[in-house]
Design goal:
7 helices; nine-stranded antiparallel β-sheet; seven-stranded mixed β-sheet; 590 residues; mainly beta
Amino acid sequence: MLRLVISLLLFQCAAATYNIGPIDVSVPVALNIRVAEGVVHVNWTTGVPPQNPVVYVWKASDGVKSAVSVPADGRFFFAVGNPQYHVSAKITGLTGVGAGYIVVASDYDKNQDFRLRSASSFRLPFNFVEGETVGNQWCYPGYSPGGPVFYDSLRTPEQIHLSTSGSDNGLLITWKHTLKPDTAFITTFPLLNGTWMYKNAVNHTVQRMQNLTYPAQSRWYVTGEVANLTPGATYGYVVTGVFSGQAFKSSPTVFKVLEEGVVPRICFIGDFGLYQGLVAPELTRLVNNDEIDLIIHVGDIAYNLPDENGSVGDRWLVGVSPSASQVPYLVSPGNHDTGGPTLNFSDFSTRFAMPQYSSFSSLFWRQKIGPLLLLSFNSEGLFSYNNETDRHYETQYNWLANQLENVDSSVKWIIAFAHRPMYCGFSGYKDCCSITGRSTRFGVLNEKTNQWQFGLEQLFAKHKVDLIVTGHVHSYERFWPTFSWGDGNGSASSPYTNPTAPVHIICGASGTAEGCDPFYGLDSITHQHVWPYTGNALNISAFRTEARGYGIVSPNNGKLRYQQFACGWDNCLATPYDEIELQKTTNRSL
């Protein structure tokens, strides 16, 4: 078989020549993967005749250098007045029950230049054997010319994703059925000494079954809590929907419970849609190799969840399921997540169940994990205060203040995150790029008193929040510890040791079809970043780049480390291009 030859990595969004957006009809879309009878069926759609379609596949744990190629075949059809082509390939001989694989669908463009196109990932189900027909929650029930019929797209569970529950040693599991099940439940079984203890299986009831209705299709999202898990233990689980007495189950998959008292390894992504290059497969690789414990997505999900009567959100959730069904996938809402069939974040709040979801519709929430406190807040609520009856921002502020005023003495680190940043070096006009004050920092302006109120920057600084991670601006930028445009460094030589203000990081270029955002230039004399609304060179931005990628927060010898990794259309680098370590030698209460 042919080996995949990796071209130069195109990190810079602005310099990338690939048109991954939907306006390029030659790009493979709706990349679907199905597993049946020992064969993996890969299918996609394109708007032009395929010239030399190829599927590249490699085991996530082995890396891209182990990739092999499989030729694909195309078939013409006419859909909704537009000529389209279905392309399909069959992959056999894969090994490793439960192993994760990455798939890239590719073709030549009109100039015969090779381009990687659309990427996805899947995991061989635990009951994957020759001759056996199995359903798989990793797989989207798409079109498969000549493929076996094994998947009931109306009843089989899909889009399975985890989140933390807000309590210790508990998880929430959410999934989707097209039709409403009569009942639904989760079954867990522990791994003991390398053996799955099916005889110790426990069924868990579900707490929520919510309808998301669009004109073309209804969807039912089911959420259940798995509580009282053993710290450090590994569990297998299956989700089930029952229809007229018949059970439709997912394939078994696995999650591992964190050890008590540890700081989790967190992958941060932001502004992450369908056209995300290799970030989604990279998340699968990180999970399969046990390099991260949870994922946090700081808004702008799928671009956009409600589009095409909700099918964009469906395809996106299927794409992240290989990672999101193994580790918690936690979300904060962005400006692209406000819509839905009834607006008011209805699509976002139905598809996702975060800690305290029953109280705040997953719009803001908290989770304590060991010595780490995570605070998610809804930055969009600060931009919807014209209607005096809408007091979401006030409710959120009071809730955040209460959480911060009652921080447990065991908490060493506090990380807050949302979509819109408080500071940024973006060269266009965005909400954060104004020194005169914006809602993300000062809250809302009371028109009667002409005073700002419910400001979060002051609240976070007062209670010594350590790190604030956001997106919205499609780039990566790290700031020195900053409060009110001022220096909060610990010292000139060690700015991140005992800083007096939070560190702000923008991680907003994980994968958006809108392209990346450029920065302001450098002053020709001082070589510092020029902020044109003051005419002065302000020195709060420590590092910036337009590179696509993701960040990882992890513990390191008592410090809190943040690393940023580049992940482009062709490859992801294993070495971070930016890294800092936060260190405390004083007690939080001092």
